[in-house]
Structures are given as structure tokens and as C-alpha cells.
């Protein structure tokens, strides 16, 4: 399985990862269109970096069978099947399914690794496990 591993002790909250993700997937400068989220204030969740860990818990919750695990282990949303009910968003145990007013469907990290390439401190890295 492929996923984005995080080490919050290394994160300097530069937000380069968010900018890279929004640009890579939506050609946008709007960081709220990023699948990885950086909190300047960790708040009650005590979390700085929030991103999908590819657990796949959402797969069985989707009434349209729009969520699946790809051959490389990454959990994907089939936009052709998704009706935007947002059940997966509310269900996600790590709160890492994203929504934005510009899009009907939610979106999530697919472990492409573009953000990790831009991270100056290696706080995020692509990992592969069996
Ligand atoms: S928003 Fe789309 S992917 Fe999520 S549960 Fe609803 S139909 Fe499935
Ligand atoms: S690019 Fe790296 S250091 Fe910068 S906010 Fe993202 S994870 Fe943190």
C-alpha cells in the first residue's frame, strides 16, 4: 500500500504542500483546494498535518460504490459514480476527505507525492508497505 507518511515534528508550517496539491490537481492558487491540510494552530485535535492515510474505511460507507482501492493500494473516488451525498466526508475517521464549494464531489489524497517533493524538511514522504 502506498500512502503519505507524516512526521509532524519536522513540519515548519510553510504550507508549500497545500499550494503544490491545489496547483497539481486543480491548477489553483487556492490552498483550500488541497487534499493535505496544515493547521497553524493544532487546536483540540492536536494535529498539524491532516491527510488521508488510505485506511479504506470509507469504501463500504459509499451508497454508490464510488470509492475503491486501486491496484497500488490507494483509495480513490470515481467521480462518474459519486453523487455528492458527502456521507464519506462525515464518516472519515481521520477527517481527511475534503470538500470545496466549487466542486460537487469530495476529494482526497491519492498519495501522488507531489507535495512531498516540495516539502523543505521531509515532514511528509511517500511510503510503501505490503
Ligand atoms: S460523496 Fe460520493 S464518494 Fe462520498 S459517499 Fe457520497 S457518493 Fe460516495
Ligand atoms: S511542505 Fe512540509 S514543512 Fe511545509 S507545511 Fe507542508 S509538511 Fe510542513
Structural overview:
- The radius of gyration is 14 Å and the shape is globular.
- It is of the alpha+beta class and 130 residues long.
- The chain has a single domain, classed as Alpha-Beta Plaits (2-Layer Sandwich), CATH 3.30.70.20.
- The protein is built from 3 helices and 6 strands.
- The mean pLDDT is 97.
- Strand 4 and strand 5 form a beta hairpin.
- One iron/sulfur cluster binds next to helix 1.
Bound molecules: iron/sulfur cluster
Please work out how many helical segments DSSP would assign.
Answer: 3
Order the strands across the largest sheet as they lie in space.
Answer: 1-6
Order of helices and strands: EHEEEEHHE
Counting structural domains, the number is 1
What is the approximate shape? Answer: globular
- From the alpha-carbon coordinates, what is the Rg to the nearest angstrom? 14 Å
Q: pLDDT under 50 segments (min length 5)?
A: none
Amino acid at each position: 500500500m502506498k500512502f503519505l507518511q507524516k512526521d509532524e515534528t519536522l513540519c515548519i508550517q510553510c504550507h508549500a504542500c497545500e499550494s503544490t496539491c491545489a496547483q497539481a490537481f486543480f491548477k489553483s492558487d487556492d490552498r483550500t483546494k488541497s487534499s493535505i491540510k496544515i493547521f497553524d494552530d493544532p487546536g483540540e485535535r492536536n494535529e498539524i498535518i491532516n491527510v488521508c492515510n488510505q485506511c479504506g474505511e470509507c469504501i463500504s460507507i459509499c451508497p454508490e460504490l464510488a470509492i475503491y482501492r486501486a491496484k497500488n493500494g490507494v483509495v480513490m473516488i470515481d467521480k462518474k459514480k459519486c453523487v455528492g451525498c458527502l456521507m464519506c466526508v462525515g464518516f472519515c475517521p481521520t477527517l481527511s476527505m475534503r470538500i470545496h464549494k466549487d466542486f460537487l464531489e469530495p476529494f482526497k489524497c491519492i498519495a501522488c507525492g507531489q507535495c512531498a517533493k516540495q516539502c523543505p524538511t521531509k515532514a511528509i514522504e511517500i511510503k510503501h508497505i505490503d
